[in-house]
Amino acid sequence: MHRLVTSEYKCAWYGRELVVIDRFFPSSKLCGACGTVTAKLPLHVRQWTCECGAVHDRDVNAARNILAAGLAASACGDGVRPQRESSRTGRSSVKQETQRATAGIPRL
């Protein structure tokens, strides 16, 4: 818990966004190539081959899957900053609406 609080504080300090993924997300067992989750993968197994033929280093694969999950959450707004009311500027974050062009070729 202390790490999470420290991470939240550091992110706020540097104007960054902290995305927390589910603790039980199968990051090291999820094939980054095809999305298949390997049912059993003992901790002593450091490298594994998926049914699709992709060979994974367990830690590198987990890091890539965690990055992808974080980027997906950021892009979709899925649970990102649920407790945060406003940004550092004091303005609430709201969905941006499409702006009408005042010059150039208008969108159809």
From TrEMBL:
Keywords: DNA-binding. This is Cas12f1-like TNB domain-containing protein. GO terms for molecular function: DNA binding. Residues 89-101 have a biased composition (Polar residues). It comes from Streptomyces spiralis. It comes from the Bacteria. Residues 8-66 form the Cas12f1-like TNB domain. The keyword Nucleotidyltransferase does not apply. Residues 77-108 are annotated as: Disordered.
